[in-house]
Amino acid sequence: MKYIFTFCLTLFLIQIQAQTQPWKGKFEPIDNLLEPVNTYRTASGAPGKDYWQQRADYNIKATIDEKNNVLSGEETITYFNNSPDDLSYLWIQLEQNVNKKENEDFGSIGNNLRDGMNARQMQFLTRAIDFPAGYTIKYIKDANGEAIQSLVNNTMMKVLLDEPLKSGTSMTFSIGWSYHITDRSMYLLSREGYEYFPEDDNTVYLIAHWFPRMAVYNDTEGWQNQQFQKLGEFALEFGNYDVEITVPADHVVASTGALQNPENVLNKKQRKRLKEAASSFDKPIMVITKEEALENEAEKTSKQKTWKFSAKNVRDFAFASSRKFMWDAQAVKLPTNTVMAMSFYPKEGLPVWQEESTKAIMHALEVYSEATFDYPYPVCISVNTSNIGMEFPMISFNGGRPKNGKISKGAKAGMIGTIIHEVGHNWFPMIVSSDERKWMWMDEGLNTFLHQRTVAERYPDFNSTTPISIAPFMSGDKNVLRPIMTTSDNELLNQFGANFYLKPTVGLQMLRNSIVGKELFDAAFKEYANRWKYKHPNPSDLFRTLEDATATDLDWFFRGWFYTTDNVDMELSNVKWFKVHEEDRNIEDQKQSTQVVAEGDTATEPPKDFSTGPEVINMTATPDNAYGQFLSRLDEAAVRKEVSGKNLYEVTIKNKGGLVMPVTIEWEYTDGSKEIDKLPAQIWRRNEYEVKHTFIKDKEVKTVNLDPNFEFADTDMSNNAFPKTESASEFDNFKNKN
Fold first, then answer.
1. How confident is the model at residue 210 (pLDDT cuts 50, 70, 90)?
2. Rounded to the nearest 5°, which phi and psi values hold at 111?
3. What is the rounded CA–CA span in Å between residue 16 and residue 14?
4. Long-range pairs of 588-593 with CB within 8 A, sequence gap ≥ 24
5. Which helix (H) or strand (E) holds 76?
6. What's the pLDDT score for residue 125?
7. Quick one: pLDDT band at residue 178, thresholds 50, 70, 90?
8. Pair type for strands 663-669 and 701-706
9. Which residues face 55 on adjacent strands?
10. Could you give the count of Cα atoms lying within 13 Å of 270 in the half-sphere of its Cβ?
11. Interior angle at CA 78, CA 73 and CA 81, nearest 5
12. Percentage of residues in the chain with pLDDT exceeding 70?
């Protein structure tokens, strides 16, 4: 009895240990890494029957004081509490406060001194030239005009309510504010502000994250009130906007939304051109010409005009204003919508912006719409400025300019790529509204995936990202590298481009091209986009949807690619060649010159090529007891006939990088022909470090290569061939070419 008790106790303890220390293999489910499912977010990755999100409508009147570079405004916010919770306070974002000197950029960006520094770098670091950054909040009032108390914590303002805002109700309140517009040349990662042109004493204003905006309140986090630290961008609620923008009368305004009063801000000729552009599907029409822009540049009137815009169901609002702008427009026909693609640029953008900007918008609109859902808004705008690529609903600010009217092929490709990328952000995150403050990769990675697809399809002469692009990064020092699932502000500045843009892009490319297949993947990606348009998805919702819509277990991929810093490095460690003994021939003759290693003899190394010929398998009759209780028997003569004269190859592959992937094997035969075999990632299930697989071939093999088309970002191609070849050189050539 004592021994039985001890045995049972041991089993019990083993079970407890198994529960508290679960096996964490590469193919185990990632449920413990994902947010738990509930009635708001389902296990399939779709919004649940009780999904909710808040809403905020804005009525804004703003004025640019060009002389003092001050923007002032008044806004009325109607906030809808659709949550099941009563809210005793509200959080509002004040991103303009990030440049206050006492914030010191939170000390997180560009904070190192060097032996040699230029003046601009020194300004980024020390703020030697002070600037009166940040909001002046003039008032916060309720619908009755009564003051509402508030507390400001850096870039967040807490609005204190006298009574809780009940679930299912709304409230209206107003804020008066002003701030000094940032000189973009003074601050690192400045996504808004003004660009000054000394030659003609004019300015291009890029006005973004400019008005106090409601923070997100959601089911997984409550208030998203992380401080704005420049790297992590924005989390915002959807709503309707009515905005009036008062600027100098010779300014031209490009904006989120549809222009409501063209008769007040455009002359008769310009209105006629704009109407003509609405039916011009083959080329852009100049709404404001170079001559008119030059005339505006010289005028510098003291009069003012008010431009009125309306935008429905958007999560943000931005605009640009300058007397320097030319303006062209073209209609783009989508299956369910006609969109006005428009570009605004100063003369410094000529000729390339007039030639390429609106065309790039059109290509992005078409490819992204096909891959997800039709672009739903009436306009899509690209504005030229310097040193930037930044997105907002219906409008983006894009760098890239010629020098003295000329631009290199590489610079032109970069400019077009920037426009496509920023236009693409209309889908991710402006409509599929993920939390940029927390998960930069969810918008940057998904957007770059479609951006690169657009470039590959519409600009095949340009270089585009492929799996080989990320291999150098993934082979880096694991003590420094961080996984994709790192929150936006915690990534190293020199890694966030590779980790948040390129690595997710390559991951999606591998799923589409090599793991799931284009047809299944494209349908699943479209399903995700449509499930979550105008909603707030989390990473769990994406992962679950891709599995749900493909019937493919991808937990192994998500675990390795998104949650670890493992890399792909498969080694083709050995290939053994066999033939089956022919009964009517002497086995010694069949061995020819093959050097068979005797059992227990470890002195002889395995062959390094196929020159010694095949080893011979003596295929014996199957004994009855091998069949167990089965009474039927194989036709052994038929089996022997099927393998007679065939070549059997046992391939041994080692996982040296830690990241499991499917295996693609290229066979080159002695007659010069080639063949591809593909094995799924699941071959690694029982042994994550080494696998063996046997192939039967009619022809004799000359060489064997792993991943011949560089589909899986293998970081070391020098160990991918048998016999060993100059694969490393081939890899380098491929890298240089791509």
1. very high
2. -105, 35
3. 5
4. 590/616, 591/615, 591/616
5. strand 70-80
6. 80
7. very high
8. antiparallel
9. 80, 238
10. 18
11. 140
12. 91
Q: What is the mean pLDDT of the chain?
A: 91
Tokens of 78: 């109607």
Task: Using alpha carbons, select from 182, 186, 180, 181 the residue that is nearest to residue 122.
Answer: 186
Residue 603 has pLDDT above 50, yes or no: no
Residue 40 DSSP SS3: coil
CA distance 375 to 359: 16
Beta strands, E only, 370-524: 379-384, 389-392, 395-398
DSSP for 183-195, written as a single string: BGGGSTT--SEEE
Whole-angstrom distance between the N-terminal and C-terminal Cα of the chain?
Answer: 71
Q: What is the pLDDT of residues 149-159, one digit of tens each?
A: 999 999 999 99
The phi and psi torsions of 159 (rounded to 5 degrees) equal -95, 120
Long-range contacts of 339-342 (CB under 8 A, 24+ apart): 339/365, 339/375, 339/377, 339/378, 339/379, 339/380, 340/277, 340/278, 340/378, 340/379, 340/380, 341/284, 341/365, 341/379, 341/380, 342/254, 342/277, 342/287, 342/379, 342/380, 342/381, 342/382
| 670 Cβ contact list (under 8 Å, min separation 6) | 699, 700, 701, 702
- Take residue 177 and report the two structure tokens written for it: 């504010």
Q: For residues 463 and 469, give the distance between their C-alpha atoms in angstroms, rounded to a whole number.
A: 10
667 strand-pairing partners: 675, 704
Closest-CA residue to 203 (of 251, 131, 133): 251
Q: How many CB atoms lie within 10 A of CB 98?
A: 22
pLDDT for position 21: 47
Model confidence at 600: pLDDT above 50: no
pLDDT at 597 over 70: no
Class of residue 723 by CB neighbours under 10 A (exposed 0-12, middle 13-18, buried 19+): middle
Confidence class of residue 97 from pLDDT cuts 50, 70 and 90? very high
Alpha-carbon distance 601 to 578, whole Å?
19
Classify the phi-psi angles of 197: left when phi > 0, otherwise alpha if psi is within -120 to 50, otherwise beta.
Answer: beta
| Residue 406 to residue 403: CA distance in whole angstroms | 5
Distance between CA atoms of 413 and 463, rounded to whole angstroms? 8
Rounded distance between C-alpha atoms, residue 549 and residue 525, angstroms: 8
- In this predicted model, what pLDDT tens digit does every residue of 679-692 receive, in sequence order? 999 999 999 999 99
- pTM, rounded to two decimals: 0.92
148, burial (CB in 10 Å: exposed 0-12, middle 13-18, buried 19+): middle
Pairing of strands 570-580, 615-617: parallel
C-alpha span between 229 and 216 (Å, rounded):
17
Instruction: Give the bridge partners for 244, in sequence order.
Output: 61, 308
Q: Are the C-beta atoms of 408 and 417 separated by less than 8 Å? A: no
What sign results for the dihedral spanned by CA atoms 107, 196, 408, 120? negative
669, 702 Cβ separation under 8 angstroms: yes
Three-state helix/strand/coil letters over 501-549: HHHHHHHHHHHHHHHCCHHHHHHHHHHHHHHCCCECCCHHHHHHHHHHC
Q: Which residues contact 222 (CB under 8 A, 6 or more apart)?
A: none
What is the rounded CA–CA span in Å between residue 338 and residue 279? Answer: 9
Q: Which residues contact 204 (CB under 8 A, 6 or more apart)?
A: 194, 195, 197, 320, 321, 322, 324, 325, 346, 385
For residue 457, the model assigns a pLDDT of: 97
pLDDT value, residue 109:
66
Residue 439's pLDDT is what?
A: 96
Cβ pair 516, 550 in contact under 8 A:
yes
